[in-house]
């Protein structure tokens, strides 16, 4: 990724960012013309929820200027769905980690939640597909 070192330096200077991850096609190095750059950030829990939107918008603006593209998708992992957080950590492409112990604990919690939920998601999907097979899509 062009200017990755500049991006990492910028993110590290933001004291409220605990970790930052690259995921999606950029993490797999399989980008195309329509690809965006997916970045997940884990923020300090002490931040007020009211401030998160402005903070995210400011970060996106800075990242756009650093990377020279507006094809940025920034995910705040603190309030992202478990399934998305799982995809972020599964890519295993941290840009930087402020505290390795906190990173391991956060990822451990995501894995536990994801694996707990996985059984029920599969069960629900099977039941749904069975009903669709029996009755079709009309209810």
Structural commentary:
With 139 residues, the chain is an alpha+beta fold. The protein has a single domain, classed as Beta Polymerase, domain 2 (2-Layer Sandwich). It has four helices and four strands, in the order H-E-E-H-E-H-E-H. The chain has a four-stranded mixed β-sheet, sandwiched between helices. Strand 2 (37-43), helix 2 (49-67) and strand 3 (72-76) form a beta-alpha-beta unit. Helix 3 crosses helix 4. The protein is globular and about 55 Å long. It starts with a helix and ends with a helix.
Figure out the total of helices.
4
Low-confidence stretches: none
Which class do the helix and strand fractions yield?
A: alpha+beta
Helix content: 40-55%
Overall pLDDT confidence: 92
Oligomer: single chain
Shape: globular
Q: What is the CATH topology descriptor? A: Beta Polymerase, domain 2
Q: Span between N and C termini?
A: 47 Å
Classified by CATH, the class is Alpha Beta
The CATH architecture designation is 2-Layer Sandwich
Q: How many individual β-strands?
A: 4
User: What characterizes the major β-sheet?
Assistant: 4 strands, mixed
Strand order of the largest sheet: 3-2-1-4
H and E string:
HEEHEHEH
Fourth-level CATH superfamily: Beta Polymerase, domain 2
Number of domains: 1
Strand content: 15-25%
Which radius of gyration do the C-alpha atoms yield? 18 Å
């Amino acid at each position: 990724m062009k200017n990755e070192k500049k991006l990492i330096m910028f993110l590290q200077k933001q004291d409220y960012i605990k970790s930052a991850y690259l995921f999606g096609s950029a993490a797999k190095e399989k980008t195309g013309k329509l690809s965006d750059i997916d970045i997940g950030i884990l923020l300090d829990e002490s931040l007020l929820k009211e401030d998160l939107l402005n903070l995210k918008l400011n970060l996106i603006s800075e990242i756009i200027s650093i990377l020279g593209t507006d094809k940025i998708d920034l995910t705040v992992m603190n309030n992202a769905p478990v399934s998305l957080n799982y995809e972020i950590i599964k890519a295993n492409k941290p840009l930087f980690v402020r505290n390795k112990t906190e990173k391991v604990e956060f990822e451990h919690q995501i894995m536990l939640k994801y694996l707990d939920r996985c059984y029920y998601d599969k069960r629900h999907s099977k039941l749904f597909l069975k009903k669709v097979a029996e009755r079709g899509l009309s209810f």
